[in-house]
């Protein structure tokens, strides 16, 4: 391949009519064009693989985060329900005439 080779400066996106290639270039030059095009195809395939891999990792990270958020919200809801139950128990203890003092439910210990 010579310096300033018109085939190497040819852009793949500029190739509109394959027939024109055969009219303008020799067989050897067309083979160089083919090698160049195949090389660019392989390069694009690799770029696509990397991009898909990155997006897949992003998707997995997002799914993990959503799972953690779900678990956290479930724990929060359980804690609020425990607090409501405890408040209800306290109200019943006050309303109970001559009743004994109510003990704090064990389930509230995880809130501390």
From TrEMBL:
<keyword id="KW-0472">Membrane</keyword>
<keyword id="KW-0653">Protein transport</keyword>
<comment type="similarity">
    <text>Belongs to the COG1 family.</text>
</comment>
<dbReference type="Pfam" id="PF08700">
    <property type="entry name" value="VPS51_Exo84_N"/>
</dbReference>
<protein>
    <recommendedName>
        <fullName>Conserved oligomeric Golgi complex subunit 1</fullName>
    </recommendedName>
</protein>
<keyword id="KW-0813">Transport</keyword>
<keyword id="KW-0333">Golgi apparatus</keyword>
<dbReference type="InterPro" id="IPR033370">
    <property type="entry name" value="COG1"/>
</dbReference>
